């Protein structure tokens, strides 16, 4: 191989790659155009081949070091830069993407919340009228134990906080995922039957609402309401909205199957399934945080109840504010559009 001729023929490619790398390293890979990124990837492959060839020829250590530098810099930008972009995308999703998904799905989340709240009020009313209803929902043994001991069952968490916190997280995540998967269909091994789309989602929401309503009556009758809701408020401010979001995701999937509208069912599942998946990505961190709070903060006797109530209230307000948060780009687009809208209305 004529070394000098080979170097002269390949030198332009090396310089071009070095130029692209300098720009990417100075301002970021995302400042390059799509064509330039394709060129960078192509030149990386060709320079890697050049380096392999140079090592088998007597081209000099200086050129080999230069080619090694180009390949290592290219690898760093293409692969590690891609990882940085992935992390940036994750951060951006949790900053603005998840709140946007919640706002787009507000109707389904409202239905989910209504199912839970209405069933809770129904259970509360029936439990006051008929004590046997409370035993039917919560179990006669549990009701009798609380009435006799006049003590909250939450004290069992004390002394085993790490285990309890992990178990709580797993249980809450299981409840939410059951509500989500129930939007498609759900197999009930106890019966066994496969429920229609959305039925199991509704069941999860109604059943949990009935339990909360029955528990509310039980603690009210035993003068434990203030202590129980102080326990519930800190983690419930995240846990209950997460369940409502999960119910909304399940109803989105059920809508895709039962009422696809202008879409084919497979297309509707892709559209609404993506929207439901965005809710899922946000639900899991909420449940993890709620599980930590429920395991370590909520049951602690060292923390006054008033602090627990205040903590739950602040967390809920922060969650609402977070869900209303819009990206700067969206806000700017709204500002640009508003004069045109005002003019059209006039």
UniProtKB/TrEMBL annotation:
According to the record, the segments passing through the membrane are 106-127, 168-188, 200-220, 240-258, 279-300, 306-324
A Pfam family recorded for this sequence:
SpoIIM
Q: By its UniProt entry, which InterPro entries does this protein fall under?
A: SpoIIM-like
Alphabetized UniProt keyword annotations: Membrane, Transmembrane, Transmembrane helix
- Asked if the keyword Isomerase belongs to this entry, the reply reads no
Superkingdom, natural source:
Bacteria
**Name of this chain's protein:** Stage II sporulation protein M
């Amino acid at each position: 191989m004529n070394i000098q001729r080979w170097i002269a023929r390949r030198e332009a490619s090396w310089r071009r790659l070095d130029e692209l790398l300098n720009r990417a390293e100075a301002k970021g890979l995302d400042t390059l155009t799509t064509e330039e990124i394709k060129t960078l990837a192509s030149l990386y492959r060709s320079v890697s081949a050049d380096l392999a060839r140079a090592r088998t020829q007597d081209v000099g250590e200086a050129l080999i070091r230069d080619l090694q530098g180009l390949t290592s810099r290219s690898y760093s930008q293409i692969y590690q830069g891609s990882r940085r972009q992935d992390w940036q995308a994750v951060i951006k999703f949790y900053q603005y993407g998840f709140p946007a998904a919640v706002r787009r799905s507000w109707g389904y989340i409202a239905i989910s919340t209504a199912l839970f709240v209405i069933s809770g009020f129904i259970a509360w009313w029936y439990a006051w009228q008929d004590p046997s209803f409370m035993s039917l929902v919560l179990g006669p043994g549990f009701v009798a134990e609380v009435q006799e001991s006049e003590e909250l069952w939450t004290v069992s968490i004390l002394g085993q906080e790490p285990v309890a916190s992990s178990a709580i997280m797993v249980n809450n995540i299981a409840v939410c995922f059951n509500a989500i998967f129930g939007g498609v269909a759900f197999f009930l091994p106890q019966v066994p039957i496969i429920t229609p789309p959305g039925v199991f989602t509704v069941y999860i929401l109604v059943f949990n609402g009935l339990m909360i309503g029955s528990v509310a009556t039980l603690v009210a009758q035993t003068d434990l309401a203030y202590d129980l809701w102080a326990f519930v408020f800190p983690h419930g401010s995240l846990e209950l909205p997460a369940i409502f979001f999960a119910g909304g995701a399940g109803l989105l999937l059920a809508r895709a199957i039962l009422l696809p509208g202008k879409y084919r069912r497979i297309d509707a599942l892709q559209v609404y399934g993506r929207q439901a998946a965005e809710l899922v990505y946000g639900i899991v961190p909420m449940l993890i945080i709620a599980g930590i709070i429920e395991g370590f903060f909520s049951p602690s006797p060292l923390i006054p109840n008033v602090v627990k109530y205040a903590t739950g209230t602040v967390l809920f307000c922060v969650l609402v504010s977070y869900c209303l948060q819009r990206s700067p780009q969206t806000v700017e687009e709204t500002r640009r559009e508003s004069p045109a809208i005002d003019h059209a209305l006039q």
